[in-house]
Amino acid sequence: MIIFELAAAVLGVAAVVYLVFALIKPERF
Known about the structure:
The protein is mostly helical and 29 residues long. The chain is 79% helix and 0% strand. The chain crosses the membrane at residues 6-24. This is K(+)-transporting ATPase subunit F.
């Protein structure tokens, strides 16, 4: 399903961005 693949891609990108922010600004987490 294309919708499922798109949702998985969005979640993957969001997870990577969250990890990068957690590494750059650990005092906020």
